Each structure stands twice: as C-alpha cells, then as structure tokens.
C-alpha cells in the first residue's frame, strides 16, 4: 500500500498541476511532511489522507490502491 500511495499522490498532484507546497497548505501540514508522503518515508494520518483525497478529487480507495477507479459514484438522496 505504501508504495502505491506514494506513486498515486505524486501522479495526482502532477495531474492537477499543484506543487507540494500547495497541497501541504491546503492540508495544514508542512511541505516537508507532504514530501515525506511522496517519498514513502511517512504515511499520512486518516484525517490528512481525507483532505488529500479532497484536494485531488479522488477516493481514498484509489489513493491506497484498493481500486483503479479514481472517483466513487455518490448516491443521490431519494434515488
């Protein structure tokens, strides 16, 4: 999971055109902390991982490698 997470973090960031610092600021962490996630030397806590998924507009399952589908269809209330 760790290797997949690091690769997907980097790829999603590049796909969105964000810098590591921009992602870090949104997540209220230091740039160095975010760099460590991409380098596989640290794993983010769940609350940070959720923020990162929001930034990249992908599911947590995608980030950690449980699926190759980036987005999850959300149920519409009343359907």
Can you walk through the features of this model?
The protein contains five helices and no strands. By secondary structure, the chain is mainly alpha-helical. The chain has a single domain, classed as 434 Repressor (Amino-terminal Domain), CATH 1.10.260.40.
Q: What percent of residues are in strands?
A: under 5%
Overall average residue pLDDT: 91
Which structural class do the helices and strands define?
Answer: mainly alpha
- Spell out the CATH superfamily: lambda repressor-like DNA-binding domains
Please tell me the CATH architecture by its name: Orthogonal Bundle
Proportion of helical residues: 55-70%
Secondary structure: number of strands: 0
Give, in order, the helices and strands. Answer: HHHHH
Radius of gyration, Cα only, in angstroms? 13 Å
Number of helices: 5
Give the SSE map.
Layout: H1 2-16, H2 20-27, H3 31-38, H4 46-56, H5 60-64
Helix pairs in contact: 2-3
Keywords:
single chain; 79 residues; mainly alpha; 434 Repressor (Amino-terminal Domain); 5 helices
Compact overview of the structure:
The protein is an all-alpha fold and 79 residues long. The protein has one domain: Orthogonal Bundle (434 Repressor (Amino-terminal Domain)).
